[in-house]
Design brief:
By secondary structure, the chain is mainly alpha-helical. It is 58% helix and 8% strand. It contains eight helices and two strands. The N and C termini lie far apart (42 Å).
Length: 211
C-alpha cells in the first residue's frame, strides 16, 4: 500500500486570536478547525493507513513539501525503570514564510487528530470481544455497556492510534481489557503528535499576532 500524504487545499480564515493547543483540540474535537467533509476524509485516511508511525512520517513529509523547509525534531533522552533509554520529543522546529502557509500546516496536522467514527470503533471492539475471555456472569447488557463506555473514552483520540492500540491489545490480552490497557498504547504515541501540533500552533500564532 502506498502511503498517502495528508494534504488539504483550503485554509482557516486568518485570525489574530490564538488557536487551540493539542490538549484543547482533544477535549473539544476538531470540528471548529475542519469541515465535516474534511473530518470524514481524514478519518478514512487514518484508518486506511492504520499505522501511527507512517502517519507521523506522512505529516512531516507534507509539512516539508508545503513550507519548502526541513522540519527538525528536537529530542532528549530519559532513562526508564527497565534500565533502558526513552527518546522524548521536546518540540519541532518549523519555518513558515506566510500566515497562509502556517494555517495550511495547522489543518494538515489537525487532520491527524480526527477520531474514528463511533460505528467503526464499536465494530472493532465487537471483534475484540469475541477473542478474549469475558468476566464470569457478564450479560449481553453488561457487555454492551462496557463497550459503549470504552468507545466513549477511545473516541477522544486519533483514529490510527486507537486502531493500533486495539490491535495490540487484541494480540496480548487474554481477558477483557480495562481502559488503561488501551491507554498505555495510546499515550506515548499521542505525545509526539501533540508536540508537532503545538509547535505548528506556536509559529502560526506568532505570525498572526505580527500580521
Amino acid at each position: 500500500m502506498s502511503l498517502k500524504q495528508i494534504n488539504l487545499s483550503t485554509t482557516i480564515s486568518a485570525k489574530a486570536t490564538s488557536l487551540p493547543t493539542s490538549k484543547e483540540l482533544i477535549a473539544t474535537g476538531v470540528g471548529n478547525l475542519l469541515s465535516t467533509q474534511k473530518r470524514e476524509k481524514a478519518a478514512v485516511r487514518l484508518m486506511d493507513i492504520s499505522n501511527p508511525h507512517k502517519v507521523d512520517q506522512s505529516l512531516l513529509s507534507s509539512l516539508e513539501s508545503l513550507t519548502g523547509y526541513p522540519v527538525n525534531e528536537i529530542t532528549s533522552c530519559k532513562y526508564n525503570d527497565n534500565r533502558g533509554v526513552d527518546i522524548l520529543t521536546k518540540e519541532f522546529q518549523l519555518k513558515f514564510d506566510s500566515l497562509e502557509i502556517a494555517e495550511k500546516a495547522v489543518e494538515i496536522v489537525a487532520c491527524s487528530f480526527v477520531p474514528m467514527p463511533k460505528a467503526d470503533l464499536q465494530k472493532k471492539l465487537a471483534v475484540l470481544a469475541t477473542l478474549v475471555v469475558k468476566p464470569a456472569g457478564e450479560t449481553a447488557k453488561d457487555l454492551a455497556l462496557r463497550m459503549e463506555s470504552l468507545a466513549l473514552q477511545l473516541g477522544d483520540y486519533p483514529a490510527d492510534i486507537v486502531s493500533k492500540a486495539i490491535d495490540e491489545v487484541k494480540n496480548t490480552a487474554t481477558f477483557w481489557p480495562s481502559y488503561s490497557e488501551f491507554y498505555k498504547h495510546i499515550s506515548w504515541r499521542m505525545k509526539r503528535r501533540e508536540r508537532l501540533y503545538d509547535s505548528v500552533i506556536i509559529q502560526r500564532n506568532q505570525l498572526a499576532n505580527t500580521a
